[in-house]
Write a structure and sequence with these properties.
Chain lengths: 259, 366
């Protein structure tokens, strides 16, 4: 009986989590416009999706921003992690706390504060302000992925490289980066994923003229949900699912659970 | 004993070697704490010098200053006539074997050893030749393609040594390189390192807290404590003539008792007078008297200088270790013959084996 209840509970949770998404995916293949009636299997909404220039523009914005933000935040975050690692204990603890705060802060607070910052400096919001915002919220996650790898490294590795004739720059390239590479790759993928599915912060840091997919869906949904959005959401869900699975697999490999 | 005589003979020839490294008045402070307090030291070419002392005595800091990983707060480091105090580590003609090996896990054994040569743009075939020669030297021929993480601690240590030696440094710095190995392996590696050093004719600067290791391997031992050098000498010199009670206690085992130097060659302790060979302490000077456990001879109850009672007996393999109470002091005595617990014995020491030392200075005693 107890076992049955446990199973039932878990199944209930999973249903609540995934049935909406499942409905959405199924609906994206519905030939009719009505959500109440199944009118046969069709790819018509997917076709329309790729014909819509608004959606295609938004897709371009989303992907380029995710890529740029991932690359830039990975470079900055990795260097920051190395710098923080080299600090003495107390400044190091302080920096790590400062790094963690943005991650625990609600997105809406980050979004609004960035918007206020742009307004204060009279920066016109658009593509570049959104990119800057994405880089900002990505960096802490990169630092957090790289730091454990640095801590696992033999603390004399850097000195050994210098000892064998490396300049500090060569030591970074030939010894430190190879040692932290798995963490860097994980951080980059995490940054890409976070940027790809962000709505709240993007909403506050761009103008209505430059939309990414999530802000576009939001503004269109206010006028009533078109079935093309079902198709779009289904595609986004699948993409993010795949990316997250890869990230999780990597993280699991990096921190093997001791049984 | 014979071994120690050999090292002294070598040390005599060592004196003809030019000085390679000189430390002038080196001090190092971290956040106001003095770790090194005006160290003066020179190291000759081809010499095997050991910095010996308890943890926190400044021995590793001294090594790191020579390696270029620390800059002294005060003083200069002279290498082959040139001031290298501010020269970065990668420009120095020294190489280091680190405490935990610090091999690069993303490279295989051969690439680890070749690391320094590749930086110097050595031709490929020459690198291959030198790496093979090094693997042979450390008895790991054929291990080149292995990953370093698949090797045991002892093998990793050999690779770390090979990686440093392949660059043909003028000085090899070794920071407690055998600390992580078990006793048997450590003894083997001590002998191997020593013979390697003699064959290659490279100067070794070795850091350890293990006095036996220091006595076995070194031409010269530098005993350190609290950021200062207490004594510099050959292993035999330091063992036989420790400068103060700390050195005597740190190098080997000792009985240290307070005494009064009545006049030259006559000392009083435990209520008895002993002939000794030391002089120049003045009259009625308070001193420390050091006697090694193996220098106390057990004799008949009535013929010894002191009479005592055996309190405990331990069998130590080669000898027995007995604690004997005599003259109000518990003496540690090593002897190949055993006296049963509770028996009364006489203790005797020949004058030559009584070492008189000044009371330790306050500064050193902290």
């Amino acid at each position: 009986m107890k076992k049955f209840l446990q199973r039932f509970y878990i199944i209930l949770i999973l249903l609540f989590l995934y049935v909406p998404i499942l409905v959405l995916i199924v609906q994206s293949f519905n030939a009719g416009k009505s959500r109440a009636k199944w009118e046969g299997l069709s790819f018509v909404w997917y076709e329309e999706l790729f014909k819509s220039s608004a959606i295609m523009d938004a897709l371009k914005v989303t992907v380029t921003i995710a890529l740029l933000a991932a690359v830039i935040s990975t470079v900055l975050g990795t260097l920051a992690a190395i710098g923080i690692y080299a600090m003495k204990k107390r400044p190091q603890a302080l920096m790590m706390t400062l790094t963690n705060i943005p991650m625990t802060m609600p997105d809406i607070v980050t979004g609004i504060s960035l918007m206020l910052l742009y307004l204060f400096f009279r920066v016109d919001r658009g593509y570049w302000t959104m990119l800057l915002a994405h880089i900002t919220f990505d960096i802490p996650y990169v630092i957090l992925s790289v730091m454990p790898k640095l801590k696992q490294m033999n603390k004399f590795s850097y000195e050994a490289a210098l000892d064998l004739g490396c300049t500090p720059g060569q030591a970074l390239r030939k010894v430190i980066l190879p040692a932290v590479k798995p963490g860097v790759v994980t951080g980059a993928m995490l940054a890409f994923t976070l940027s790809l599915d962000d709505f709240t912060i993007s909403y506050f840091t761009t103008s209505p003229l430059v939309q990414n997919l999530s802000t576009l869906i939001y503004s269109q949904a206010r006028k009533g949900i078109k079935p093309t959005l079902n198709a779009l959401s289904a595609l986004m869900f699948i993409t993010l699912l795949v990316l997250l699975l890869i990230v999780n697999r990597r993280t699991a490999d990096n921190h093997p659970v001791k049984s | 004993m014979a071994d120690n005589n050999v090292s002294r003979a070598e040390y005599v020839s060592m004196e003809e070697q030019p000085r390679l490294i000189t430390l002038n008045n080196i001090s190092k402070e971290y956040d106001g704490v003095t770790v090194l307090d005006h160290i003066n030291l020179y190291i000759r070419k081809k010499e095997f010098v050991t910095l010996l002392g308890p943890s926190g005595c400044g021995k590793t800091t001294t090594l790191r200053i020579i390696g270029g990983f620390e800059t002294p707060t005060e003083g200069t480091v002279i290498f082959d006539g040139q001031d290298i105090t501010n020269l970065p580590a990668y420009k120095r003609r020294v190489n280091t074997v680190f405490q935990k090996y610090a091999l690069f896990p993303h490279l295989n054994v051969a690439d680890n050893i070749a690391f320094g040569l590749k930086l110097k743009k050595t031709p490929k075939d020459e690198i291959a030749r030198k790496v093979d020669r090094m693997l042979e030297l450390v008895n790991l021929s054929g291990y080149g393609k292995r990953s370093v993480e698949s090797l045991s601690g002892g093998q990793q240590q050999r690779i770390a040594i090979a990686r440093a030696l392949v660059n043909e440094p003028e000085v090899l710095l070794l920071d407690e390189p055998l600390g992580a190995l078990d006793l048997k392996l450590r003894k083997e590696m001590q002998l191997e390192l020593k013979s390697m050093q003699q064959r290659l004719g490279i100067t070794f600067l070795y850091v350890t807290h293990d006095q036996e290791e220091a006595l076995t391997m070194s031409d010269t031992i530098v005993v350190m404590r609290g950021g200062r050098i207490l004594q510099i000498g050959t292993p035999k010199g330091i063992y036989d003539e420790p400068k103060n009670a700390f050195v005597a206690n740190f190098i080997g085992e000792s009985n240290i008792v307070p005494g009064v130097m009545l006049k030259d060659e006559l000392v009083e302790f435990c209520g008895a007078r002993f002939a000794c060979v030391d002089e120049g302490f003045g009259e009625n000077a308070e001193v420390d008297v050091v006697i090694r456990p193996e220098d106390i001879v057990l004799v008949g109850e009535d013929v010894g200088h002191l009479t005592g009672v055996v309190r405990s007996v331990l069998f130590k393999g080669v000898h027995y270790e007995m604690m004997i109470e005599a003259g109000g002091i518990l003496w540690k005595v090593h002897s190949t013959t055993m006296e049963p617990e509770g028996s009364r014995v006489g203790l005797s020491v020949v004058p030559f084996n009584i070492h008189i030392m000044h009371k330790m200075e306050e500064a050193n005693a902290k």
